[in-house]
Each structure stands twice: as structure tokens, then as C-alpha cells.
Amino acid sequence: MPGDLGFVLVHGGFHRAACWDGLLPLLDGPAVAVDLPGRGDRRAAGGATLEQFVTSVVTAVDSAPFSGVVLVGHSLAGIVVPEVARRRPDRVGHLVFVSATIPAEGRSAFSTVPWFIRPLPYWSGKRRRATDPPPAVSRWLFANDLDEAATEQLVAQLSPESAAVGLEPISRRGLSPAIGRTYVCLSRDRAMPPRRQRRQIANLGPPCQVVTLDSGHDPFYSRPAELAGVLNQTMRLVRPSQ
After folding, report:
1. Alpha-carbon distance 110 to 114, whole Å?
2. What is d(CA 31, CA 227) in angstroms, rounded to the nearest whole number?
3. pTM for this one?
4. Which of 183, 182, 180 is nearest to 93 (CA)?
5. Is the pLDDT of residue 111 over 90?
6. In which band, very low, low, confident or very high, does the pLDDT at 156 lie, cut at 50, 70 and 90?
7. 3-state secondary structure the chain
8. What pLDDT is recorded for position 101?
9. Which of these, 71, 157, 161, 173, has the minimum number of CB atoms within 10 Å of its CB?
């Protein structure tokens, strides 16, 4: 693994790269936060595909000012970062999944959500329409452990999302077993409750280090120092001994 390492951070559904802003100064290495396609543009979001998501992150990895990458994916980015690592095994040394969506092999991201909330995003995806949760739902899903100021910041940064991405079947075949994996469980998460997080870890399969934070779905807002500590420790594990 190259001696110079940095982080490439990939936000989850409805979020933007700005969600990582409070975390960046706490990291022990350089970092690049990626904005996935369609941020802030409903029409572009409705037409976005998983391949476009993956390509945008591959581009960020290729252009990063460091040669070794700890690739971090939050929530929906769990379907993106393994494919990026499969395409760039020479650059990606470790994957960190933060309460991330990990479908069973060949299944879609929608297969991981409860049956009673699937119909609306399913039909939006079939029609290539963007979706976004109402502000009250966003507050309940993402901000249950945040104060009002942080909640307002979070809600203001949310963006329409491509529902079609959630319909695409996911495969992790060909992902190098030499690339390490860490899953960060969030014990107060409502968007991906702990029981469902454990299913994602089982779908990912061993070997996978599991770390638990006492946090809701967005620890970069509620527990930035603790999340940074996990990421920094990961970097120390990946970094070759001097």
C-alpha cells in the first residue's frame, strides 16, 4: 500500500458532500468529499443512475492528491463504494461503511427497506422521478439526536434523490479480499435501525470489523469527533509501518 493515505468520503441518499464539513478538520489525513450526481437538481437527480454515482467517485479517487484511499460510504453509498473499490483495488486500501446499505448479492437497495415504505420510491424510480422526504420525516429519520441548530443545518442541506438507483441489482463479485472492511453501527439510527444494520453486515460477509457509536443516522453532525476517531484509527491500521 502506498505510504501517503487520505480519505474519500461519499454521502448517503438525500445528502450532499457538505454533510462532512464538521468532520473534515478532525481527520488525521487529507480528505475529499464527493457530491454525487443530481445534488440540488430535481431533473438531474431523477435521471441519475448507479453507474453515474460510481463514475463520480472513481473520478474523485483517481484525482485525489494522495495515492492510497480509505473509502468511506454513508447509508445509500454502501451500494457505491464496493464497486469503486473493485475498479480501483490499487488505490483503495480500506472500506468504511457508516450505517450503510448492503443488499444481498444480486438484490437492490430497496430490498433492504421495510416493505411498507417501498411502493412510493419504487414507482418514482420506475418513472425516473426524484424523491425527497418531507421535512418532518427528514427530522424524524436523520435528526433524532441533534439539537435544533444542527437539525436546521441538516435539513437545509438535503437534496432530491434518484429513486431509480435503489432499483438496480447490486453485485460485489470481484471485490478484492485484500481490501479491509469496517462497518460503523449507529445505535440510535431510525433510518437504518440496528437490527437492519446487522443484516447489512451479514450481507457484506466476513472479515469485517464492527464498531458501534451511540448516534443517530448522521454521526458527522451528532458525533463528529467519535466518527473521526474511528476513521483515524482505520487509517493507522492501513498505513504501512515506517
Report:
1. 8
2. 14
3. 0.92
4. 180
5. no
6. very high
7. CCCCEEEEEECCCCCCHHHHCCCHHHCCCCEEEECCCCCCCHHHHHHCCHHHHHHHHHHHHHHCCCCEEEEEEEHHHHHCHHHHHHHCCCCEEEEEEECCCCCCCCCCHHHHCCHHHCHHHHHHHHCCCEECCCHHHHHHHHCCCCCHHHHHHHHHHCCCEECHHHHCCCCCCCCCCCCEEEEEEECCCCCCCHHHHHHHHHHHCCCCEEEEECCCCCHHHHCHHHHHHHHHHHHHHHCCCC
8. 96
9. 173
CA-to-CA separations, 154 to 4, 23, 99, in angstroms, rounded: 32, 14, 17
* Averaged pLDDT of the chain: 89
CATH topology of domain 5-238: Rossmann fold (3.40.50)
Burial of 191 (0-12, 13-18, 19+ CB in 10 A): buried
Residue 47 has a pLDDT of 78
